[in-house]
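Hi R.,

Here are the chain sequences for the assembly we discussed:
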Amino acid sequence: MPQSATDVADFAQQVVSGLSSGSIYASVALAIVIVYRSTGAVNFAQGEMATFTTFVAWTLVDHGLGYWGAFALTLLIAFAGGIVLERVLIRPVEDAPVLTVVILTIGLFIALNGLMNWIWSAQVRSFPPNRPFPTRTIDVGGVAISIQDIGIVAVTLALVFALYVLFQHTKVGLALRAAALDRDSSRLVGVRVGWMLALGWGLAAALGAVAGLFTAAAFPPLEPNMMRAVLIYAFAAAVLGGLTSPVGAVVGGLALGVTLNLLSAYVDFVGTQLRLPVALVLILGVLLVRPAGLFGRVAVRRV
Amino acid sequence: MAPLLELRDVEAAYGSVKALHGVSLRVNEGEVVAVLGANGAGKTTTLRAVSGLVGYTGAIAFEGRTIARPSPERVARLGIAHVPEGRGIFSELSVDENLRLGAYVRRNGSWKDERARVTGYFPWFERRRGQQAGTLSGGEQQMLALGRALIGRPRLLLLDEPSLGLAPIVVREIFSIVTRLNEEEGLSVLVVEQNARLALRAAARAYVLEVGRVALEGPSDELARNESVRRSYLGY
Amino acid sequence: MRVVRPVVTVLAVAAAVAAVFLTPRWVSDIDLAEMGVWFIAILGLNIVTGYTGQISLGHGAFMAAGGYATAILVADHGVRDLWTIPLAGLVGGLAGFVVGVPALRLTGLYLALVTFGLAVATPQLLKWDKIDGFTGGNGGIQLFNEDALLGKGFEDVEVLGHSLTFTRAVHYLTWAIAGALLLLAWLILRGAPGRAFRATRDSEIAAAASGVNLAAHKTAAFAISAFYAGVAGALYVIAAAFVSPDTFPVSLSLTLLVGAVVAGLGSLWGLVAGAAFITFADDLAENVSTAPGVPDTVYGLVLVVLVLLLPTGVAGGLRRLLSPLTSRL
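And here is the predicted structure of the full complex:
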C-alpha cells in the first residue's frame, strides 16, 4: 500500500493515466456495444477502422490543416465512412447468421490493415506533430498530472455525454434504440431500420476515430497495427460491462484502464508484458462467471 | 365508394411453404371486419402481407391505390397501424417511450395533445409513464400496443389476435375499447381472432380462412346464427 | 449415381498423388510444403468452424504450441524432428482441450472474441521474459544448431534408398501426413461423431434433445482441430528450421480463416483450393503491386466478397455446379 507522499503521488498518477488509457478503451468499447446492440454482431474491424481514420487525419495535418481542424473533419469522415460501410457491406448480410457478419468484419479487418500498409506503408510516424494537449504536467495537490491525460478523459466524457443525450432525449435516439431492440416492431411504427443501423455504424466509427487519434497522441507511434491491443482491451471492457450496456462499456473501459495500470505498476509478475494476457483472462473469466457482465442483460440459453 | 382496404388474390409464402393461396377481402371505411379460422389458416399472414412484413403476389390497395413496393415503413406512413401477434411493444423501453414511437411518423399535431387523447382511452398510461413496458401485465401490454397504434391517428388498424393469452375480462375490455374507437372516431379495423364469438360480436363482417383461402364470408350476425357454420368453422 | 461417387473419389485421389510427384518446375518444393501445412491447418479449422459452427480466430496459437513443442524438443532435447510431429500435435490438442473446456460454455460470438484475444495475446505471451529460457524469447529457437544435429536439417535425407533434398523430403512428408489426416478426418466426419458435429452446428437445441452430448462434442471438435493445427505448426517450423514469437502472428490465424472460408466451411473438397489460395495469393498479389500490404488487402477483399456472394465458400459453389456428381463429405 502507498505509504509516503511520493507513493501516493505515484498511485495518483497511475490512476489518472489509467483513466486516460481507459477512456480510449471506453470509446472503442462503446462503439462495439452500439454496433452489437443493433446488429447482434461484434465488429472485429472497429480497431482497424479507427487506425485508418487516424491515418486520414495524419494526411490532413500533413497537408496543412491544423490539428483540431483535422480532428473535427476526421470525425465527420469517419461518421460518413461508417454509414457507407454499413450500407454497402453489412446491409446485404443484415439478416444472415451472426457468425457470417463476424467473418465479414474479419475480412474488413484484414483488408483495412493491408490497405493502410499499402497507402501509408508500415513506416512509423509520430502523430500529431503538433500535439492535441500539452504533454507537460500540472501540479494537483502535490501530484504531477499530465494535461494530456486530463484532456483525453475530458473530451471522451464529453462525447459520451453527448451520445447519452442523443440516445435518451431525441427522437432519432429513440428510433436508434428501438431499431436495436426489435427490428420488426420498429418497422411497423415507421422507423427506417436500415438507416438506423447505418447511423449506429457511423457513430461507432466516429467514436473509434476519437480513440485512434488519442491513441496516436498518447501511445505513439502511429502505425497500422496501433489498435491491435486496444481492440482486445476494448473487448474486455465491453464484456466486463456487458455487451448490451453502453454505460457498462464506459465504466468497464475506465475500470480496466486503471486496473491494468495498477497491476502493471505494482504486481511485478504482470509487469508491462502480461497486460494483454491479463485482459484475455478477464474476458474469459467474465464470460464464464457472469456472461452478462456488470450491467448487461442476461440472454438465457438453456440447452 | 372504393373500399378502404382491398386484397385481391393475395398469395404469400414463407420460404417454400405457401401460407396464402389467393385471399381476397375488403374493409370498407368505418367498418370492423374480422378474419377467423383455425391455427395455421393464414390469418396472421394476411395481416403481415398488408403491413409488408411478408412478401406477396397479388394486389393490395389502400384508399383505392395499390401499395407499391410494400414495406412496413411505407405502410406505416400511409396510415395503417399494425398491432402484431405478441403485441410488438418494446419491453425495455418505458410506456411513454413506446407511445412516442407510435407518433414517429406523424408530423402534425402536438405530441402532448395526441398523448392526452389516447390516455383518455387508457387512463392508467398517465400514472405509469416511466414504467418499463416489459413489466406490465399481458393485458396492459396489449392496451399499450393499442395505444401506440392509435397515437399516430391511423386510418386503418390491423389487430392480430388481441385476445391471445389474456383473461376473458381483459379481452372484453379491449374489444369494448375497439368498438368505442370504431363508433366514436370512425376507426376502421381489421381484426384477426381465434375467439370467433367475441370477434363476431365486435365486427360487422367476417371472413373465415381455411388453409390459406377464404372459405366463407358474410355479415357477422348471419355467420353467428348459422349453426353448422359455427360448428365446422368457428368451433362453438 | 452410386457408381459415380467412388469413381470420382478414385480419380481425385489419383490426381492428388500425381500432383504431389509431378510438381511443375515453377512451383517449388517449399511452396508445396507450405501448401501442405496450410491444408492441414485449414482442415483442422474446418472441423471446428465448418462442422460444429463454432468459430475460432485463434488457431495460430495452436500452431504456435505445436511449433514451439517441436522446436524445443529438437533443439533442447535432440529428438528427431520426425518423431516430434505427433507430440506437437498432442501439445496442440491439449491446448485446444484447455481452451475448449471453457469454450463450450460460450456462444459462437463470445468464442470468436476469446480466440481472437488468444491470437493477439499469444505472440506477446511468447515474448514474456520470464519464460525466455524455455522459449528462447524474442530471438526464437533455431532447430538444427545442436552439434549432434548440426547440418542434419539441411542435408539430403535417406528414404527407402532414395536420396531427397531436405525441402523435397519435407514436401513429401507434409503431404503424406496431410493425406493421412484427411483420411482420419473423413472417417471421423462420416461416422457418428461427424453427424453429431453437424447436428450441433445446425441446431444445438435439437442436437441436445436428441441425446448428443454437446459439451463433449464441442470440446472434442476443438481439441481435434487444435491437434491438426499443432501438427501443421510442427511441420511449418521444421521446414523453416526456426521459430520465434512472430512466426505465428494474428494475421496467420485470420489468414487461416480466410483459407477455410475459401475452402467452404463445412466441406472437405475445397481445402486444396483454400490452401493453394493462401500459398499463392501472395505471389499473385505481388503482380498487382509490390507494395507491402497488398496481399492482405487482397485476402480481406476476397473474404468480404466471398461472404457476400458465396456463403458456403468455393466448395459450396463447386458443389452446386457438380451436385449430381458428388455428395458432401
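The radius of gyration of chain C is 20 Å. Chain C touches chain A through 54 residues (CB under 8 Å).

Let me know if anything looks off.

Best,
T.
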